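Hi there,

I know you've been waiting on this one. I reran it after we fixed the sequence typo, so this is the corrected version. Both the input and the resulting structure follow.
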Amino acid sequence: MTAHISVPDTTAPSPSEQDRDRSSRARFAPLANQTVIAGITVVAAVSSVLLPWLEVTNGPAMWSGVVLALLGLAATALIVCRPALLTVELLVPALDFVAIGLLRFGTGDARSVFLAAILLPLIWIAARPGRRHIVYPLAGTAVTFLLPIVLDPGDILASELVRLVFVLLVFAAVAGVTNELARQAALRLRTAQQLRRIAESEIGQAARVQRALLPGSDVGIPAEFTVRGVCLPARSVGGDFYDWFPTADGAAFTLGDVMGKGAGAGMIAAVVRSVMRTSVDAADPAESVAAASGALSTDTGDASTDQFTTCFHLRVGADGTARWADAGHGLNLLLRRAGGSEWLRSGDLPIGVDTAWTSTRTALLPGDVVVSVSDGVLDLFGGDVDALEAFRAFATAHPEPDDLVTGIGALGDDVEHDDDVTVLAVRYDGR
């Protein structure tokens, strides 16, 4: 006469796993950035050679820029293979400023149409935290503009110097805005991560409390009964629950299914369970259901809520006399030891929809088994119109509470389910 309880602790990825994921993305980010820059540089050079309306003013300089960009690509590939080299990552975009300067010089200098490529390494550096990463790309931009003057120190036009100053001012603004946006994004990310850790901690605590509320043993249950139960929540906290406790003349058994999932449904499940237990002296199970409804009612006295609970509450005396109330649940099956089965269901509505319920009397013979399941169990049997009969066939083939609960628990472990899976099986063994 032992209780079989299985409640997995399905939690979100641990902070260490999240840190590893972020670290992996950080490793590959330089390679992605440099692939774009190298690709644009190659396309620019090839286009300048093939398209007649683009000019090549210095072929060696242009192809030297392409080679430098490809060397940067090789360097980022090496960084990916050896994460310790991430500390020198910024040397790659620094090399790109030179590469773009050579590309600009080789494709028309001030007339080059490829100058906009300088924004790529600029944003790469400016997006990193720290105000110093605004200064670094400006130095690189100056290198890109001054490189043609160094390679061809002819007459330096005043317009070129004005162009350099204006471009530096514009790119300084771009770098500043990029750096600030990156800083704010990082701040929001840290805040979100902190809130997530707090929420995960609270949900973890709620899951532990919910597991503690499920009966851990059948101590106190009369020897006339064998009871088994299993609960497999779809999330850390579920809306299903089962319970049993001794009464004056026998024992009471409950299975409830709160609409929805998560912490909110778990809180309602805890309230319904607690009220059911406090009504231990109520001879009529319908009174217990009504008490649970009253505990969930609003200040206006209206028990209707946006979230309802289906519930099956069974009280069995030591002589086998069973009284039960079904609040819109309907997934309760009586397996007769002599053969055959029948559904224990009524036309009453769930808690939160109705305010009155009725109880039904059923006589149990030694060996009869009452099994109640949540609707998540039907998903394990296909979830279609035939699932109900498939479950009945399974229960009929496994009438022993141990086999029945263990079998459905194994299905719940093997089959992915989006709803909570809960089973309660009670056998009346008689005196």
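Quick highlight: The first strand starts at residue 225 and ends at 232.

Best,
R. S.
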